[in-house]
Amino acid sequence: MKIRGIEKKDRPALKTILKAQEHFRPAEVQVALELIDIALTKPDQQDYIIGLAEGDDGEILGYICYGKAPMTDAVYDLYWIVVHPAFWNQGTGTFLLRHAEKDLMRRQARLILIETSSLPPFASPRAFYQKHDYRELARVTDYYAAGDHKLIFGKTITH
CA–CA separation, 141 vs 67, rounded Å? Predict the structure, then answer.
């Protein structure tokens, strides 16, 4: 497995990976695709940094998207970390996350934030974040919808 940058030819595979996520609503897939499109059409922008996990056979296993939080000195948001369900529990998500953390250390980040839903279908992503030393920093009740709270996980980066 290796990490590489995004290319225009990758969009259909990324769309397939996003649609394979049972816990993503159509609006979430749409937003993820919008960020992918920005990265593809504006290669010099730094708001959305995307890394793809590619298998030995060239198949895209998943991707990660992160960027600097506006108006902060060194806080970065991890927008998406998505692995095709066929490759869950095989280390792909950890590989992507570790890649991003190393890149963010190089960029002198001091804090990484991840937002997610409190609903039961998002229990696995929340457990993944906690397993990798991200802790819940905030909870905004009824944010996405009544009963669907926004959870913000974070991890301080030490250099």
Answer: 25
Can you give the pTM of this predicted structure? 0.92
Point out which residues pair with 49 in neighbouring strands.
66
DSSP result, 71-94: T-SSEEEEEEEEE-GGGTTTTHHH
Q: What's the CATH code of the domain at 45?
A: 3.40.630.30
Token pair 């990976």 is found at 17
Residues, the chain, total?
Answer: 159
List, for residues 58-96, the tens digit of each pLDDT value: 999 999 999 999 999 999 999 999 999 999 989 999 999
In total, how many domains does the chain have? 1
Residue 27 is predicted with a pLDDT of 93
| Domain extent at residue 126 | 2-156
